[in-house]
Amino acid sequence: INMPLLVQDVLLMGRYSALKSMFGGYTKDDLESMRELANTLKIESFLTRNILSLSGGEFQRVLLARALLKNPRILCLDEPTSALDLHFSIELLSLCEDYIRTHNIAIIAILHDVNLASLFCHRLIFLKNGQVHYDGKSDELLKPPILKDIYGLECEVMSHKGKAHIIISKEYV
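Below the sequence we write its predicted structure tokens.
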């Protein structure tokens, strides 16, 4: 986006496909849904800001909200945490996890951080050279031999509170 739009206008783009008439404008329900979702994703203070003034992480949350305003049954996210620090990565994925539970949707996400995937994903698919090499539950796949095959790195896998955590070594194979 390279136009100085308000965040609320960018969010409402997510409701555009639901307009009854392109001349009728957004309904009271559209505006209420936008405000509720902005509150849920903790971006309500951004609504009257210029979209160009947002940080990368703030912009990521706005894009997530815009996508969720379409009321999808399946949401595909490509690197939703790429511009976020660790705190906001955890927060964003926690919000997604809560949204899955409360709205009964599925989220497919591309994540390169295996530790984040371990914390939030029920199923993992590992690709190598454009092909699916492994597909299964995180506790089945997060094993040193599999991670070495995929990433070519030595690592250890530790469990904490039932979730795998990958500890990598600086040595390459």
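The chain has seven helices and six strands.
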